[in-house]
């Protein structure tokens, strides 16, 4: 579809505009439908098979790659006149690409295939930007899934997490679970390796283990919770120069995942 063939919405009376205004509110929680923003998360959702009702872009910026992707997947696409887009997002962040999608069903622990890679377990990690970065690294480095314990998120389809992960929450099982549920699930399936400053081994040595692992990361402030810390089978550390106190949890996860990947 050529840019000059794309329909542009110019009237606020168009039902799509009211729907976008309603579901883009910060208080809105995904039910049967959800709001997506930015080109990369929208594109990843399409490639992952999420059913998109329609995709919209600010008429001042026509994302040609996304237009072609929508056409190839049969996803409706329209432009929104810039003044109208500005009136919808008059306060806060103004995205150039938005979409309305059917909310995917939540992933479960049973959806994680440990035959395809390790699982990342985040125990008390609550900064959404860090969680999103870890999901991106997990997908890029071949992990089988990510489990969130005590994240304080109500849903993996949280608008902030979708954006922070660049949409990879649609392409990788990301599961909300209680810690004791995860420990029961892991038993007999994989060894749990907790990353800690005083770990008994190093991530380099962990990288050489020929078995599925659960890589456990606690919060930067508190580390692993007592119950999870007591249950891990092994602790590992990332060697650092003297005087360095710690690494950001998303950086630590990326290092550990790369050590475990077969890409290096």
UniProtKB/TrEMBL annotation:
InterPro entries: Alpha/beta_knot_MTases, Ribosomal_eL30-like_sf, rRNA_Methyltransferase, SpoU_MeTrfase, Thiostrepton-R_Mease_TSNR_N, tRNA_m1G_MTases_N
Pfam families given in the database record: SpoU_methylase, TSNR_N
Thiostrepton-resistance methylase N-terminal domain sequence ranges: 9-112
Annotated source species: Actinomyces howellii
Any Gene Ontology biological process: response to antibiotic
EC number(s) from the headed UniProt entry: 2.1.1.66
Keywords assigned by UniProt, alphabetized: Methyltransferase, Transferase
Domain tRNA/rRNA methyltransferase SpoU type span(s) in chain numbering: 119-258
Gene Ontology molecular function, alphabetical: RNA binding; rRNA methyltransferase activity
Transmembrane region(s): none
PANTHER family assigned to the protein according to its UniProt record, in alphabetical order: RRNA METHYLTRANSFERASE 3, RRNA METHYLTRANSFERASE 3, MITOCHONDRIAL
EC class (word): transferase
SUPFAM superfamilies, per the entry: alpha/beta knot (SSF75217)
This protein's name: rRNA (Adenosine-2'-O-)-methyltransferase
């Amino acid at each position: 579809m050529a840019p000059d063939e794309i329909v542009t919405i110019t009237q606020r009376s168009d039902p799509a505009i009211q729907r976008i205004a309603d579901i883009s509110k910060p208080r809105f929680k995904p039910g049967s439908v959800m709001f997506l923003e930015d080109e990369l998360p929208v594109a990843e959702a399409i490639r992952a098979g999420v059913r998109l009702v329609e995709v919209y872009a600010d008429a001042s910026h026509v994302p040609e790659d996304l237009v072609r992707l929508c056409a190839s997947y049969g996803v409706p696409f329209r432009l929104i006149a810039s003044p109208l887009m500005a009136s919808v997002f008059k306060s806060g962040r103004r995205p150039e690409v938005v979409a309305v999608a059917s909310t995917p069903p939540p992933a479960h622990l049973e959806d994680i295939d440990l035959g395809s890679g390790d699982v990342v377990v985040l125990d008390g990690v609550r900064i959404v930007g860090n969680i999103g970065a870890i999901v991106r690294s997990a997908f890029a480095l071949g992990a089988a899934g990510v489990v969130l314990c005590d994240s304080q998120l109500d849903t993996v389809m949280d608008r902030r997490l979708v954006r922070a992960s660049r949409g990879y929450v649609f392409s990788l099982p990301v599961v909300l679970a209680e810690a004791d549920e995860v420990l029961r699930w892991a038993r007999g399936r994989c060894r749990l390796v907790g990353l800690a400053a005083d770990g008994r081994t190093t991530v380099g040595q962990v990288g050489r283990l020929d078995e599925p692992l659960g890589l456990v990361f606690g919060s930067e402030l508190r580390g692993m919770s007592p119950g999870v810390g007591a249950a891990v089978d092994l602790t590992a550390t990332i060697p650092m120069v003297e005087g360095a106190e710690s690494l950001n949890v998303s950086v630590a996860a990326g290092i550990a995942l790369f050590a475990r990947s077969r890409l290096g």
